[in-house]
Amino acid sequence: MEPSVVKAEVLMKMSQQKKRISPRNYKYRLFELTSNCITYYEYEKGKKGAMKGSVATDSICCVQTVQPEGDAPVQRQFPFQIVYDKGILYIFAKDEDSRRSWVGVLSEGTRNNAKLMETYHSGFYMEGRFLCCKQTSKASPGCTLYKAGESENATPVFNKSLPPLPGLEGRDRLALPPIPKEMKSSPSLVDTWCNDATKPDLERETDDRWKVKNADGNHGGVAPACLQEAALDGNSLTESRKRLTKRSCTVKCQQNNKPKMDLSDRSISFDTHSATQPLIFPQSDNVEDYSWYGGNMSRVKSETLLQQMGKEGAFLVRDSSHKGSYTVSLFSLALNKTTGTVRHYLINTTDDKQFYLAENLLFGSIPKLISYHQLNGAGLLTRLRHPALGSDTIPSSGYGDWELRREEITLVRQLGSGQFGVVQLALWKGRCEIAVKTIKECSMSTDEFIEEAKIMMRLKHPKLVSLHGVCTEAYPFYIVTEYMENGNLLEYLKTHGDECPPSRLLDTCLDVCDAMCYLERQQFIHRDLAARNCLVHKNLTVKVSDFGMARYVMDDQYTSSAGTTFPVRWSAPEVLSYTRFSSKSDVWAFGVLMWEVYTLGKQPYEPHDNKQVAENVMRGCRLHRPQLASEKLHCLISSCWYQNPEDRPPFHQIFEDLQAFHEDRQHIDSVWDSSDKTTEVQIIHAKQELNL
């Protein structure tokens, strides 16, 4: 039995222009709405004709009005839009009453859909861009806040800014470069992906990434896609940059001789060379000052609240049934992708009034404990991401000079688009080239997106891609970075590798290692180091980018939650087995990156698939020596691949060894004879001693 028609009317429809060359036209169609779809038919001379299209109601992400075109005729004065998983359907009602009726009934019927958008575009997509905000990608995030069920025109949001990040007074923003007389454009690459895990099995997610499964066989999360790049021609950009003003910030220090790490007092000092504060603690030790505190909330009520919120990492702190104690209630989709899971963690207290969830991490107050676990899961099901009860009441400094004026940024063209993010070439004040990163609708939360910007604010090094600022006073949020004219390192090696002398390949490895030494000193792990995530400046300096997976750690270890995706071919054995990340897993990935450099961009372990790669790596198989790498250099590369993480050299030691190679030019010219090629994979025992 077919579902009954809820609503029917003859309306004008604009062609969807699914192909760039498709013409824009308008035709009257008979629209019929049922409980499971909206269908439109040909309609001529009062008769219903053939079906022309249909949209399932459960695929609808947004139903809202659209601003009419400035010179629109009378019959196109009352448009509305249906945004669904395959595109945007623009429809024109005959009058305001008709439009309000359709938007109302559709919004009401779809308000509980799983993939509703947070924002939408209030203008048409015409001539390759949205009329409301001038963005060129159809997948670009909206500029107006969307609330399901509201049929009136919403107003752009200008008051939802990034969460406050106190303690940045000790660091000046790197100013945007001065406006050059000439312009140049070319490619850029940014990946966007995330997250945090227990002992996993591995499941193939894409050709390049695997997904973590927990012991029960459940999993969550989605794998990201690397962004594609596009090039523009032009002239070069000036390199002058404003130097950071030397600052210092000191917090009182108290050393602790306990075997556990005591974080109740910690000394942090930095200057221009090390312009980052490893951990920024909250300003108040009183739990009642924070939005995540739920007071005397019952276990059942906390579970209901978190499940209704439905966000990965939603959490609250409540009074425990144990008198004088507190419990962290945490929601995650990692174990059950459909309904999610709420876990409850008792905050333990030591005899000297220190607090902890993980036994090796002690804190002087509960807010300090929560602040740390917002950066690092450290044994929890996932990080504490979203306070379930609103915004913190503690006043703190905002982003200040990091906030850029959106009207000074002109988007030029899309450089790349992946499952989560869009990267666009833009001009600042009409002339200065910058890269602008936004998120796609329905792909991830804005809170997850801005994690990368918050990390970049804490880090400053010549071999890291620089953050110029953010735009957070209206949707979509922007992360604005320096523009790297030669694109990502992987594509550069494939395209220009044959032109690179051996000394240039060694300089590339030194540049990346220099950046990783800095991250190692700052207690950050990158977790996604690969040639595709490094960018090449016009002067051929290579800089590390893509901090979407970077994490601050205090004990040089980070275990991700179930549902995490990771690149198998760059992953160490402990990551493949337990998703256990550390600076030594970054060292492993750096060894694979050096192999990429000296093979001029070949895929590691080709032609083996991910399953074969993981099995071979766990058995002790390693990549063969590249033809362009000398025996001594290959020994250094291989030392990054010891089975035991503790046997791998730290980055500062690798950097010293690479510098020694740089000074001794003899090995650079000693290229491996092509007749000595070994098989694709060479067995190297994990405990083998190598003479470096």
From TrEMBL:
Cross-referenced InterPro entries: Kinase-like_dom_sf (IPR011009), Non-receptor_tyrosine_kinases (IPR050198), PH-like_dom_sf (IPR011993), PH_domain (IPR001849), Prot_kinase_dom (IPR000719), Protein_kinase_ATP_BS (IPR017441), Ser-Thr/Tyr_kinase_cat_dom (IPR001245), SH2 (IPR000980)
Signal peptide range in chain numbering: none
Presence of the UniProt keyword Metal-binding in the record: yes
Key words, A-Z: ATP-binding, Kinase, Lipoprotein, Metal-binding, Myristate, Nucleotide-binding, Phosphoprotein, SH2 domain, Transferase, Tyrosine-protein kinase, Zinc, Zinc-finger
Full protein name: Tyrosine-protein kinase
Residues engaged in binding ATP: 437
Ranges where the Protein kinase domain occurs: 409-662
Gene Ontology terms describing biological process: intracellular signal transduction
UniProt keyword Lipoprotein, yes or no: yes
Family membership: Belongs to the protein kinase superfamily. Tyr protein kinase family.
GO cellular component, as recorded: cytosol
Domain PH positions: 4-111
Domain SH2, residue spans: 292-388
Molecular function GO terms recorded: ATP binding; non-membrane spanning protein tyrosine kinase activity; zinc ion binding
